[in-house]
């Protein structure tokens, strides 16, 4: 790596580290690019040389975090046991345990999903396909194992679960709920949704 490229990468990482801390402590909306630059020890111009906007910075901060989350999930997934609803509960419990390490940062990530001014390069909650793929793989495995109806619309089930996961974070925002509290609420949502994707019993066929 050339000296110039190495310096640019170091600047990029300092900006991301500073932004991660400020978004968590002050909140995304209250944090300015000037504050990020100051904490990173770089000029505002240097920030915009690397990132197109504050939303772009948030997207990259979350992309880096999600890489770590899914590396953790990939390590744990082969050891999940039980029915499909039980496996889904475990998957979401892993997500809650990870994301509540920096709850405010994840709340900003969710909120960005409803920002209509974002450009196509931004990746707020919902645009990252990893969560959807993990859930869909779990459901498809359930079809193969016989506890998910093969006629179920898996994409609709995925949508419902992803929506419930994000909505449960209102408890973190309003009540400072922890991972265990939100997991218990999500467990009930999963139970209700699972009632719709279980294979029909012979009496109901």
Shape: elongated
Proportion of β residues? Answer: under 5%
- Helices, by number, come to 10
Structural class of the helix and strand makeup? mainly alpha
The CATH architecture of the largest domain is Orthogonal Bundle
Just give the CATH class of the largest domain: Mainly Alpha
Q: Major beta sheet, specifics?
A: none
Helix content: 55-70%
What is the fold named in CATH at topology level of the largest domain? Tetracycline Repressor, domain 2
Rg calculated over all Cα atoms: 20 Å
Could you report the average pLDDT, rounded to the nearest whole number? 91
Name of the CATH homologous superfamily of the largest domain: Tetracycline Repressor, domain 2
Properties at a glance:
205 residues; 2 domains; Arc Repressor Mutant, subunit A; Tetracycline Repressor, domain 2; elongated; single chain
Describe the structure.
By secondary structure, the protein is mostly helical. It has 2 domains: 1-51, Homeodomain-like (Arc Repressor Mutant, subunit A), CATH 1.10.10; 53-204, Tetracycline Repressor, domain 2 (Orthogonal Bundle), CATH 1.10.357.10. It contains 10 helices and no strands. The chain has helices at 3-25, 33-40, 44-50, 54-76, 84-99, 103-112, 130-145, 154-168, 170-175, 179-197. Helix 1 packs across helix 6 and helix 7 (130-145) crosses helix 8. The model has no long low-confidence stretch (mean pLDDT 91).
